[in-house]
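lol ok so funny story. i was supposed to be doing the assay writeup but got distracted and ended up predicting the structure for this chain instead. priorities right. anyway since i did it might as well share w the group, maybe its usefull for someone
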Amino acid sequence: MRTRLTWAAYGVLATLAGIGVAHLVAALTVADTSPVLAVGSTVIDLTPTPMKDWAIEHFGTKDKTVLVGSVMAAVLLLAGVAGLLARRRLLYGAGLLVLLVAIAAGGVLTRPQASVLDLGPSVVAAAVAVAALVWLAREQTGASEPEGANGRRGVLIAVGVLGGLAVVGGVGGRLVNKLRLRPEDIDLPAAQDPAPALPKGLDDQVPGITPFRTPTDDFYRVDTRLDVPIVSSEDWTLTIDGDVDKEVTLSFDDLLAMDVIERDITLTCVSNSVGGPYVGAARWLGVRLTDVLALAGVGSKADQILSTDVDGMTISTPLDLATDGRDAMLAFGMNGDQLPREHGFPVRMIVPGLYGFISATKWVTRLTLTTYDDQKAYWTDRGWATDAPIKISARIDTPKALSDQKQGDVVIGGVAWAQERGGIKGVQVQIDGGGWQDANLGPDGGDDYWRQWFFKWSAPSGSHRISARAVAGNGEAQTAARAEPFPDGASGLHELIVNVS
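and the output, tada:
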């Protein structure tokens, strides 16, 4: 048993050395060509929609960490098997390691913008892992001979060197990626059409309520990427093509030279469940989407804008909604600073009132005017809706579900949103299925921005169910009908139980 565990450990160590060096090479070239990330990205693409929703619901923003950890666990398990096979015959163990790397290489090649050069990290992983296994096997064989002192010293040296290689490669790759993620020093232009000053919210008046403006570091991020694309503003371009009068390509400086607008807009992810965290409100700086499209001249056949990011990810936006007068924009600033890399630097799309999966392309590099019949985007191809306006919703931030409250005055509070419907006109609270009571509204940040609210409740002892619903400026009320996020967003009322004593 000890011998088998030793050989299994050799397989794991050889694989870790290969992965570590490959991760460093990928960090120095293209991050998502790292073998583990390549396999993880392929798993994401192949995962059925219900399972993706389940992962987001249960793991939240940690879903990618869980995925990468699961991929690593599976790889290392098979690496242990490779070590056991090498004990019988070295060729078999080495062959399994090569097969594992070949699977990762296949994942790399499935990327829309992949090239043969992107196989570099996978080739390095295979070469290092096989060489490491051969070295360990040779030293172990020497250690097993009658005069095996030198062999045992060789095993210790090999283990130390390969362990160090795995650590240096893994840590070095992470450090290189962190260095590359540092923001560029960009001088953002002033807005010719600035947003009015945002009123002071209820942040200091209602403990536990969501801030009126979401801090950039706290803004949710949901996408299919396991890494963050590193795009230089000097190299970035945006091409407008398809059903247009003429194809146009803009540089980052070209975009900055256009008329700049500033808007306060709330964004929501379609994966957000009722009462969920994937919604945020920020101040965005950029140019009107319609101004950019006008440079190319939109044809008469297109019914969608197919936007493409730097790595070929596609999102489809209904053309009529993107150009109906709402403040659709290409943003390069967020909350008074340049757009962070995690949120799409240099440029991302924003279309108020539409869920992000049909409107909020990060790292955007191409806008193609086309039809839904001719081209399908990533999410459209997976059965999600093509027309998905954000649903009216109110969220209860405080008190927390199942919390213990003292009898007497309890403040219930949260946020509500109703983009492209006249904003929030009212929020109502219901206690234990009784009548709906009007809550107090916080300041108004505009129709495309959420609104804080609070309700003072004289709470008697016992267990109580609290519900909230929003009413839009156009008179439309939030529906109580329950719906899951797939295919066009969750609906229903946010309800929770609290205990009062």
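The first helix runs from residue 2 to 28. The two ends are 59 Å apart (CA to CA).
back to the writeup now i swear
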